[in-house]
From TrEMBL:
Pfam families (alphabetical): DEDD_Tnp_IS110
Species for this entry: Lentzea atacamensis
Listed name of the protein: Transposase
Domain called Transposase IS110-like N-terminal: residue spans: 11-153
PANTHER family: PUTATIVE TRANSPOSASE FOR IS117-RELATED (PTHR33055:SF3), TRANSPOSASE FOR INSERTION SEQUENCE ELEMENT IS1111A (PTHR33055)
InterPro entries in the record: Transp_IS110-like_N (IPR002525), Transpos_IS110 (IPR047650)
Amino acid sequence: MTIPATCVIGGVDTHKHTHYAAVIDEHGRLLGHQEFPAADHGYRQLLEWMHGHGPIDAIGVESTGSFGATLTRFLTKAGIRAVEVNRPNRLARRMDGKSDRLDAEQIARAVHGQTSTATPKAKSGSVEVIRTLRVTRASAVKSRTQAFNTLWGVMIGAPSPLRDDLVALTKRTLINRCLRLRPETEDSVVTGWRHRAAAPRWGQDRSA
């Protein structure tokens, strides 16, 4: 990659509330570093600050799939070439210690040295909507499975009169039966089990 003499490269170490930025020149010399709010007005300040050091060739961004996602979209919309940089140089971190300034500088150097060249995913449009729906559904399925496994474990250890009646049932029938259980006996053990086996978390959704 041939970088014009007047161009600069930025690096951004992203966090939840703030982003730390650094700028280097074509020779790898650090020109400046500064912290900005992780919000729209902060992104504008960051870009203006980098432009103040010269025309921007590219900006490396850490965590483009999480804390850096919004900044990446902002930069792309502004016509800036954003580069995904996942891990700052570990050797430099061991030598100089952890610091946001160092991480931002190493992100910029990763772009300058072409050790990071990936274009971040857009994280927008119909593809992102589908991905979000898939992640949400997977989480719901996992929670339902965990809830049923808990119910099954409770049922296996239930008093024999109840366990023998439930153990051979299918999953849906077992859930429906447990939802109808009421503490109608004076046996404290059976009463306690009936309370625990009401299965409200799994059984609320009757579509499965």
